[in-house]
Fold these 3 entries.
Entry 1:
Amino acid sequence: MWLKLFFLLLYFVLLFTLARIFEAAVWYEAGVFATQLVDPLSLSVKKLKTILECRGLGYAGLAEKKDVSQLLHKSGELTHGELYSAIKKETEQTEGGAGSGTHFSGEMHFYELVEDTKDGIWLVQVIAQDREALLSKSNWGKMVQKVSQFGIRTGTFNCSHDRRNESWLSEPNNSEFTR
């Protein structure tokens, strides 16, 4: 009887110990220092503005570092984990390019990705044939950066690069153009 009770107690002690070991492993992988607070004044203005963008806050009109850090402090405490994710997001955006998105090669490419799949929301900049884009590359890049935070996919469709337009222009017997 005592032996069964001893093994039952030993089983619970081992179970408790293993649970704590697995919990420690998960805690270590998640980041030991992820919940520690960061002093905003120790960061550069660029990093502070990146964190404010990640939080969805505007910082227009704030020129000094102390004003930006005060706004950040008012929006909540800054942890190492949030700082790490903001810096990671910033480097991904700069490596991928701010204006990165799909460049549609033609009508069929557009239909394959946007119309046929109907997989999400798209913002497409259409550039008329032999014309310049309405938005400059920097403004389009800012737009892409803003809407991509909400899962909106972006693309550019340049009508000058559409192969279908080239074939229509090269056909002299097209009935629509000869009327």
Entry 2:
Amino acid sequence: MRLLWLRNDLRLDDHAGWQRLADHHGETAAVYILPAHWRETDGNGLHRLGAARVAYLQQALADLRERLAPFPLTLLEGDPVDLLLAWHQVQPFELVTHAAQAPEEVNWLARLHDAGVNVQTFEVQPLFSPEQVEPLFSKFPASFTGFRKQVEKAPAWPVPAPQPAVNLGRLQAAACPLTTGIHWREISGEPAHPAWQGGESAAQTWLGHYLFEQKALAHYKASRNDLTGRYFSSHLSAALAWGCLSPRMVWHRILAYEQQWGSDEHSYWLKFELLWREYFHWSLRVHGRRLFLKGGLTGKAVPGAFNAEYWQAWCSASTGWPMIDAGLKELMATGFCSNRLRQNLASCFIHELGLDWRLGARFFEQHLVDFDVASNWGNWAYIAGAGHDPRRGRHFNPHRQWRQYDPKLTHLHQWLPELGPVTLKQVEAHQRGEQLLDYPAPLVPLD
């Protein structure tokens, strides 16, 4: 029997795993396993499955089941290796699954291999094939710019075309011998944005709407740092993170957009962001566990310590900095905040509060619907000076940032309506600890 183990590749299109099943002449099965430890809360009150993440995952799995019908998708919850070995003991199988990215996944696959399971891997997450990137492995570029210049040297680095979904009609389904199911907690409410509806069907619909109906890519570079709005960014990150969309499909759809309306700085910049994602992806493959150390890849991260008062204020969005609290409230309520907000939240967490950057990365991991292990940890390390930044960290001036990106306080009023009709100058004075509003005093005055 051949078993496909899905993880963050919840789609049919451009998916080598389904091709492996279609090519098999015997019985086949597909399984998604929710790791039980993702729900476990640690000593800092963190786990890996915030409500918005759970809602998206539920929707993505429901959509995939519907697209697969009548072929069944088995859902399990527990330790992935223990469950797969229990299945293998009753019904031996050949396991196919996408290649490991994070150390945790490397450990899972190694344990299965050591237990005698025949494990075959394939790629579904990156733009480029391992064969294309392999020349960089011995001396991986220390900066994104170095990587980008390498991959933009045509024609050595074409992005392979996405493969169409295979015909699954001839698959012979094998029954799972284990008790199946995932215990979902009750989730209420609709996604904060139509692009954040989980599943391949919704993701493909949004991609077509964004590019070809709304033509919102025409202003992408100019609007991507906005804090609010329906079309200010592509909103594709959640679908890419859970594998509901292939990055190769997105890339080639951008090329189709350029053929129809022409290429410019805006269409280039969305591809530029996909290359950033690609850089973080391969960096994690190369550096592995080093990224998760306090010193990160450089060993020179901004020193961070634990402060219980600051940490609790952060987790309750009561830092006394209205601009930051508004971003935290949005993140915890919706599982999303803009790229610009993420950078400012990380900068304040690391440089103003002096907290360990890895704690902030784990906080984001719990709440972000579009959590991607390589991009999230890579970006936090970048801000902390522990990653791929030749400037050894980024410290933003919060006042200057909000004068530029929320001058009319649109985002602030949306998420902190209790402030009332305040002005930007009043908010800045409060955050400096000078003229306090009817709002908690700042933990640390922002100069």
Entry 3:
Amino acid sequence: MPPIRSFAIVGVVLLAAVAGCDRPVERPGEPVASASFSHDIRADQSGYYQPLTPVRSGDWTLSHLFIGQDVAFVAWEGGERIGGLAPVTLEFEDRDGTRVRVVPARYTVTDSRVSFAGRSPELGEVAFDGRLDPEALATARRNLGDQGAVVTGTLKIGGRTISGVRFRWWAGD
């Protein structure tokens, strides 16, 4: 093989190896940043969203939907994973008080939509697809919490689908 051709092949191999260094490190049980995670948020949606009425599946009750601040979305989409924290999570509690936080395998969050899918050993596949009402959210935030629904959607837990799940916004403790 001519020397120039050898250098070209070695250069391509090295370039490919270096390009692979920027990819997030995959950790067991945690998703890796990809196009499966996206957000396009102009207004602050951060906070806890609590169901207006109890939402149950078997022994589990939905505690809340959490949406973080923009910086949390940017970090997650860049591949950062810190403990069980994620910019969007669903948390459930069983009859004994045990809590399970479901982190996303995918999400899309915009000013008017929240779509989430994840999995936990206790609950299996969990998904939520909901419409966020920006005006109702703005009112709730001005009032430091309001009893009206700001997110309405469909929750899937394992093989069960629960339609008409409504959440109110709560700033948290």
